[in-house]
Amino acid sequence: MEYSKTTLPNGIRVVTSRMDHVRSASLILYFGVGSRHEPDAKAGISHFLEHMLFKGTEHRPDPVQITEAIEGVGGILNAATSRESTNYWVKVPSEHLPLAFEVLADMVRHSLFAPEELEKERRVIIEEIHGIYDTPDDYIHDVIDQAVWDGQPLGRPIIGSEETVQAITRDDLVAYVRQHYQANRLVIAAAGDLWHEQVVELADRYFGELPAGPEPQLEPARIRDGLPDAVVVSRPTEQAHLCVGLPALPYTDERRFTQGMIDAVLSSGMSSRLFKEIRERQGLAYEVYGYFREYVDAGEAVVYAGTDIEQVGRAIQAILGELDKLRREPVPPDELERTKELRKGRIVMGLEDSRAVASWIGGQELVYGEILTPDEVIARIQAVTSDDIQALAGELFQVQRYALALLGPFDDPEPFRRLLQA
């Protein structure tokens, strides 16, 4: 993969990668602001704003006009909010790249925030909150985040709460976009059948007058390091849903490649340890998986399982056993090489699409300020040793760092807290 980078006079970073074998072009706007930047009383405003940018502009006052502009040429338009960033993306046939720029610029710079649309979208988001709450295997992830981060912004749901979403006003949204959607916090990434100079010209045309602003202030993450914690959400469910979570490395730590290998050994595919042990060997869960989230100054590791109510204790012990095994025993050479090949293959296959390539270069530029090519990342993965994995697992998987979230017909968290300490 080859890429090019230009910084506009106002501080916007433009990164592109030409793909000769495709006829599409993907464009992503990455803003370095997310739910972690919000005040407690306005939790969910980043997500609310993302929704509202689709709800009418000065040039397209009817929200349908926004989607029709892109879908009318066969394109796709969407957005996503995370804890530290928000992105808006379009994928179109490459001859319509100028249209993609024009539509996204219209949304970001000329949204109306019409009161009637705001109230409609408020109701939509509140129903989204209700939907998450009513879906145990979704909601339990909010619970584990709160348990791991203990009242910090990283532990809040990205979507906010019904109370905070109800309180957000039009003035709040207008002020928020002016404060945070600034040139120095914007990365424009594009990939596909395009030329770098073309993208730079379009970026300057549509975003060259976007002002810069102060760098965002973040509350530093505090790592809980005491007795393990257990939280029970009591509901009359037929199945128990549980998450084991703990703090992990930030993306700024060079050992993130080792952390990625731990993630892959535990939970990448049906040949992973969690799947083989908990589902295939012990038959404790149909769904079991893990993931790592990485932020600028902290990270989080989570393992989820849905299990029979009578088997909760065994499932928790089995998960803890797999984590502890990585501390106690080196990963065998054949498993290490197989996992490396899996990771390399997933990287290569995952970059066959123009949107994936735009995400690769744009996401790295936003968070690292530099871009590693797939070959460079694969080389870092290849360099990870069993000793590296065992050492980092020993640092991460310590009993006092664990938190447990459990949803089901249970009342007392104490027996489950004792399981963590066993």
UniProtKB/TrEMBL annotation:
One of its GO terms (biological process) is proteolysis. Pfam families: Peptidase_M16, Peptidase_M16_C. One of its GO terms (molecular function) is metal ion binding. Residues 168-341 form the Peptidase M16 C-terminal domain. Residues 13-160 form the Peptidase M16 N-terminal domain. Its cofactor is Zn(2+). InterPro entries: Metalloenz_LuxS/M16 (IPR011249), MPP/UQCRC_Complex (IPR050361), Pept_M16_N (IPR011765), Pept_M16_Zn_BS (IPR001431), Peptidase_M16_C (IPR007863). PANTHER family: METALLOPROTEASE, MITOCHONDRIAL-PROCESSING PEPTIDASE SUBUNIT ALPHA. Belongs to the peptidase M16 family. This is Insulinase family protein. It comes from Thermorudis sp.
